[in-house]
Design a protein that fits this description.
The complex is a heterodimer of chains A (about 110) and B (about 110).
Chain A lengths: L3 E4 L2 E4 L5 E7 L5 E7 L5 E9 L2 E4 L6 E3 L9 E3 L8 E8 L6 E2 L3 E5 L1
Parallel strand pairs in A: 2-11
Antiparallel strand pairs in A: 1-3, 3-8, 4-5, 4-9, 5-6, 7-8, 9-10, 9-11
Chain B lengths: L8 E5 L4 E6 L8 E7 L6 E6 L4 E2 L4 E4 L5 E6 L8 E8 L11 E6 L1
Parallel strand pairs in B: 1-9
Antiparallel strand pairs in B: 2-7, 3-4, 3-8, 5-6, 6-7, 8-9
Classes of the chains: A mainly beta (about 110), B mainly beta (about 110).
Chain lengths: ~110, ~110
């Protein structure tokens, strides 16, 4: 079945550590996105990529980094510069920004 | 980004119809109206979308005002599984989706 796989489902980070969240899709979608969701809030765009080897910052890119070396993969690194990383992270993909398919999310907690 | 306004929360009795409103007074002619819903601790899922005409699918119906400044998502018979946060989004091809805080729907048994 086609879809988006995010891993891990739960992730714990110590202060000062970088962590990488995985996002893989087999839908052959060109565009991929990372969103952050805080409790009781909507989704905020972190980074997006329209094509391989190209990506743009969203509204809250500070403290995050991404890469897009393959069409299927769009990993997100939460760096130590992100001072409040505890949140629910969602990856999505779409064919040319039309109709999103979301993964099941990664819940990141700072310990 | 084009913005939408939705009530923070709504309640419905089980097996009754639900009308979820959305205002989008700044909509442009090329903006599609999308609806997604999000169950707790899950990613949002597609519900329905439209441009000008009313739309129906197996999940819901979308009624779009003639001036396109508002729309209504209609769930014909609410079930407990429909309890979720519903997002109304404006988007055109090549633009990113902007998710507001949505409407939290509670279904009362």
């Amino acid at each position: 079945d086609g879809g988006i796989t995010q891993s891990p489902k739960y992730l714990f980070r110590k202060e000062g550590q970088n962590v990488t969240l995985s996002c893989e899709q087999n839908l052959n979608h060109d565009a991929m996105y990372w969103y952050r969701q805080d409790p009781g809030q909507g989704l905020r765009l972190i980074y997006y990529s329209q094509i391989v080897n190209d990506f743009q910052k969203g509204d809250i890119a500070e403290g995050y980094s991404v890469s897009r070396e393959k069409k299927e993969s769009f990993p997100l690194t939460v760096t130590s510069a992100q001072k409040n990383p505890t949140a629910f992270y969602l990856c999505a993909s779409s064919p040319h920004n039309y109709g999103y398919t979301f993964g099941s999310g990664t819940r990141l907690t700072v310990v | 980004d084009a913005k939408t306004t939705q009530p923070n929360s709504m309640e419905s009795n089980e097996e009754e119809p639900v009308h979820l409103p959305c205002n989008h007074s700044t909509i442009s002619g090329t903006d599609y109206i999308h609806w997604y819903r999000q169950l707790p601790s899950q990613g949002p899922e597609y519900v329905i979308h439209g441009l000008t005409s009313n739309v129906n699918n197996r999940m819901a119906s979308l009624a779009i005002a003639e001036d396109r400044k508002s729309s209504t998502l209609i769930l014909h018979r609410a079930t407990l599984r429909d309890a979720a946060v519903y997002y109304c989004i404006l988007a055109y091809t090549g633009n990113q989706f902007y998710f507001g805080t949505g409407t939290s729907l509670t279904v009362i048994p």
